[in-house]
Amino acid sequence: MKTLLLCLLFFISYHGVAQQARGSVSGRLIDSTSREGIEGVSLSVLKQSDSSLVMFVVSDAQGSFYLDGIPHGKYQLLISHINYQPVRKFFSINSTENKIDFGAVYLVNRSGLLDNVLVQSDIPPVSVKGDTTEFNAGSFKTPPNASVENLLKKLPGFNIDKTGNILFNGEKVKKVLVDGKVFFGNNPKTATRNLPADAIDKVQVFDKLTESSELSGFDDGNASKTVNLTFKKDRRKGGFGKLTMAAGTNERYHSQGNYNRFSEGKQISFIAGANNVNEEVTSAPEINGLSRNLDKLERNANYRQSEQKLTSENSIITARGAGVNYNNFTKPRLDVHADYLYYFGKPINTSQLKKQFFLPDTSWFFVQQQQGLQQTEIQAGNLSIENRFNEKESVKINTSVDHEKLKNSFQKTYRTFQPNGMITNEGYTDNHSNISGVEGEVELIYKNKMRHRGRSLFFSLSSQINRFDVAANQYSTNSFYRSGTSTTSDTIEQQIKSHSNGSNYSMRSVFTEGVFRSSLIEINAAAYKSADNYLTEANGLNRISQIYDLHNDSLSTNSTESYDYQNAGMRFRTQKYKTGFYVGALLERSELNINLRDNHNKVLSRTFVNLLPNARFKYSFTKYRNLTVTYGSFITPPRSYQLLPVADNSDPLNIRRGNPELKPEYNNNAVVSYVGSHPYKGRHLQINISYTATRNKIVTSDSTDKAGVNRSIPVNLKGAYYIFSNINLNWKLNSINGYASLGASNYFSKNPMIFNGLMNTLTSLTIGPEIKLNGNSGNLSYTLASQVNYSKVNYSVQSALRHHYINQRYEADLLLELPNKVILESEFKYVINSGLNNGFNQAMPLLNIAASKLVFRNNKGQIKFSVSDVLNANSGIIRNVTQNYIEDAVNSLLKRFISFSFTYSLSKVGLADKGR
């Protein structure tokens, strides 16, 4: 391992020395008519050989420009501005001539050109049009067979995390459009991982406003970062796509395909795939519309799944999926969108877990081994139709249907023992469940932007229905010890069946009226109503008849729950040249009613009234620098299972009961954000600081006895708050023809809780600096990254039991293009964990390597050989901290395998686009 790291450091050092001999280009741009300097002109240095981008800059207020750090070679300087005729200058940088001064360069204004003269202009790599940053995809080199995700990694300000989430200048991208149209329900990862990079012409980034804000023209603070991918002209007519087949050792396989056919006014795309190597096919978490209801369902059914959600980070997944996306906008005022996705995932988990529990006067340990399976099958469909009556008035109908089946199976063996090694309890659990559900939603949106300035009307009406069924078998046996001798034992063997159905309706209206010259008054109102019915039957096993016919009254329920709210508010908004702000308030009344029938015969009714102020201020120093301060307040009402005074003892070691006296949480949130960027020079700074204080925080009051049995009840406490800060700095490094990124995410929280009758305040601090370097030199491109997370936890009950732990991650990705169309790739990650429980402090090196060759005419095929986890060291470690224990878990993950793959292009241009 030391040898490998030394080789990596030598490569970086050698590469840095090799890049020291460089030159510069300078000059001044002058209007040919006025003889004055021109500000804001884009200047791009391109290689003469393939027109690939080397660096770019924008002229200053006097029209001057200066580009340094240019390697030896032959180049062209492209000078472009929307108001002037483009100019191209050719030059060379070598050992004898490394400082090029073009002096005064005169630009001709386009307005002086004849109308019948066609000006052929070159497109700069990066340009800014209003609030949209646009990247010319052809200026950024990507390897053959690259996806849009690979392209985004090359663009200034973009970052892709390990789960595929897209970040632009530190902010998460929530939507990806294709030629301005919805693509698979605005699922970002489905678009970026399935569309080919060589089909993209432009990548546009902007803040997409909500539909009501788009109508009024004022940002309400709920804009979402959006990427729009525009296709090349030759891809907008005809079909393109690719097919990949791979087989490997240990019975590993991977198949993936996509096909897109575009014509004037129509788009249709197909995707399909299957694998057992943890590759997402249709991004199941994004299309899963039912999972958000499972927690509520389990609590009402008195059934618990595993505490740990199985994902690609802690399990091995076999997955398959398919989808189709369709857009039709052939008629001028009618748009139709439809998509369908199917996903099947079968994650399998084997883990070892160790917890350290804390009592006011002692502590003890809990160890567990688990095998789990969470099989998921999802079908999701969406249909949207928008009819524009005219330029100002439109109506849209959105419909969606989700169907999901879950099959869960978990087996656990566990033991609790004291610090001296004496056993307290031990047990075994074997739980199985089958859950199925369906959810449907219809939404109607009406928009009317009237003739009077600032006057508009927005109205939405939606309805949703859902239905769930649960069938679960639970078996657990536990033995309790005193002084090392078994004293009592408890066995649960029962069957639970639960059915629920629910519906909700919501309405929202927003009316704006223009006042003064640049201000608006907004009046909004909303109403929501939901009703859910739950029927749960629990039966124990009759050991004589071996039939589940022993009715359990304490776990069987028949309940009806309804939750309604109405709110109304007013907001004043104004927008001037550099300043914009709004201030307003919302008055909300909510009501929760629960009727628990059968043997419980309990009726619970709660009403809450809250005033929720909100405000936002934004000041723009320049076009690229602004400061935003936002304040908002919101409530989090207690859930029904938190209110019901019914015990849930399905887990003998963790018994829960509701509290009918709970109050809703009242949250105050303030966010300060500063953004300063220079897109042409590739520099960007973003700072975010968020503070949230919660009144009547809903927390658990835990009571744990010396036998290891924990009893919990939710209560309201004060004094809870958290602070989150993030800083991200990106800048271009001409010395390596790349970019550097320096950032840090910091988190501090204070959460008061009750443990064994004593107030136990948990304070947590996490500091996470990160640095990233992207470089590109000729046929070699690389990424180097380092991230360190330091966490510290304190307890007020046992101040001596302070814990701190460190997670370090180092990464290096290399790509080398050799002659004869041969490509070498490597990915190296080194993870170090320290400060965890004994047996969990590990150093994990993960190395993947691959070699491929392009074949066939137009490079339509690619043969690839790859080895994943060369060192056979892949493992997953997770830490979880609560008020009364610290938990470390290690999971068995996908280990070393060798695979061969073949990719074939379904387009005429093949897998490698010339000049890319």
Write structural notes for this entry.
- The chain has 916 residues and is mainly beta.
- Helix content is 6%, strand content 66%.
- It contains seven helices and 48 strands.
- It has a 26-stranded antiparallel barrel. Strands 8, 9, 10, 11, 12, 13, 14 and 15 form an eight-stranded mixed β-sheet that branches.
- The chain is globular.
- The two termini are 35 Å apart.
What percent of residues adopt helix (DSSP H or I)? under 10%
The biggest sheet, with number of strands, parallel, antiparallel or mixed sense and barrel status, is: 26 strands, antiparallel, barrel
Global morphology = globular
What is the number of strand segments? 48
Specify the number of helices: 7
Query: Which residues sit in consecutive blocks of at least 5 with pLDDT less than 50?
Result: 1-20, 114-121, 299-306
Distance between the termini: 35 Å
Q: What does the radius of gyration come to?
A: 31 Å
Alpha-beta content class? mainly beta
Strand content: over 45%
**Residue-averaged pLDDT, rounded?**
81
